[in-house]
Amino acid sequence: MPTALITGITGQDGAYLAQLLLDKGYEVVGMMRRSASSDVVGERLRWLGVLDRVRLIEGNLIDLSSLLRILHDVKPDEVYNLAAQSFVATSWQQPLLTGSVTGLGAANVLEALRLVRPQARFYQASSSEMYGRVQAPRQSETTPFYPRSPYAVAKLYAHWMTINYRESFGLHASSGILFNHESPLRGIEFVTRKVTDAVARIKLGLARELPLGNLDAQRDWGHARDYVRAMWLMLQQDAPGDYVVATGRAVSIREMVRIAFACVGLEADDFVRLRQDLLRPAEVDFLEGDATKARTQLGWAPTVTLEDMLAEMVEADLARHRARMG
Ligand code: NDP
Ligand code: GDP
Question: 3.30.1390.20, 3.30.70.240, 3.90.25.10, 3.40.50.1580: which CATH number matches 187-219+250-287+304-325?
Fold first, then answer.
């Protein structure tokens, strides 16, 4: 039975990846940072019904000694580095923390691997945010990067460190340049989940409006369950590499909001309020990925449309709020 170590197992992707690997017969070990609220941090794993099937170990991406200890104890065959300060807006409020965790944290994992477990295969969670002010109409593995936030700058450092450790030390280290992916388990601060949660509350009479920032930005949104499958596929290849994972369809925030409200028969314009303070110091206006390499080399393709995903998210948020209302 192969063993996988997932950093960031309590996040959206960590939960879906844990479920996928368990279904494939892996032993799954998750690194979790110490929290005063440890009873709630396993909520996503519980929601997917896998909390009891994973082994959780305490550690932190910014504590190299914890990573060395964990790799020594667990002896994983595959390591998925999903942990990060992952919210772009927060990265302007906490740029140094974001650099430490999202950037240097990945270097810590690579360094620990090199020292303790160089035979393990490694996945780095890179991001389409690295394209920032896009240098090509559709972004592929060869498109130059132009990061537009402290988050994206930190991810770019981690991305190049992954490539550097592959080239310097021969590690089987791959980097997935994933475009935005969502689900009912997406953090509530991200725009899709913020919207579906508000749609549910408005429908149930618990809220009257939805404050939003820039409605003109466009994103290429897929479903997290599809995207964690691409992560696993990358580590099953004989040679490591970098892959764009995307649907190839860009949709504006305005249109996404309209689709989400339509799920419950409401008009978005009646509820959306524009708020200046939700605009970002620098914006990524447009992202649309070209996943030809993932399709041809990994045999990967997305299976969920934006419309179906938003409907699933709205349903899940309605169920959550109904359960709370009793
Ligand atoms: P989440 O924000 O949901 O999860 C982040 C995880 O990292 C959580 O488990 C969190 O733990 C953990 N974490 C944060 N700081 C530390 C730390 N110092 N030490 C250990 N663990 C830590 O992210 P997603 O699941 O959405 O994304 C997974 C990865 O993919 C991230 O690296 C993200 O930046 C990247 N990515 C995501 C995309 C997306 O659209 N979702 C697109 C492209 C890349 P806790 O629960 O304690 O907060
Ligand atoms: P990101 O692509 O990783 O930054 O994912 P987000 O879901 O946080 O943001 C996607 C886009 O939605 C960005 O262009 C934001 O500026 C835009 N957006 C507009 N209003 C909001 C809002 O209220 N919250 C968030 N998170 N994003 C918003």
Answer: 3.90.25.10
What confidence tens digit (pLDDT) does each residue in 132-159 have?
Answer: 999 999 999 999 999 999 999 999 999 9
Distances (CA, A) of 311 to 44, 82, 183, 196: 19, 26, 10, 9
* Closest ligand 1 atom number to CA of residue 14: 25
Answering whether pTM is above 0.85, one says: yes
Q: Is the CB of 253 under 6 A from ligand 2?
A: yes
> Please, are residues 74 and 29 in contact by the beta-carbon 8 Å criterion?
yes
How crowded is residue 46: how many other Cβ atoms within 10 Å of its Cβ? 12
Active-site residue set: 127, 129, 151
Query: Would you call 224 helix, strand, or coil by DSSP?
Result: helix
Ligand 2 atom nearest 88 alpha carbon: 4
pLDDT single digits (tens) 197-231: 999 999 999 999 999 999 999 999 999 999 999 99
Residue 234 CB less than 6 A away from ligand 2: no
Of 6, 13, 183, the residue with max ligand 1 atoms within 8 A of its CB, to mutate for a pocket test, comes to 13
Q: For ligand 1, atom 4, name the residue with the nearest CA.
A: 11
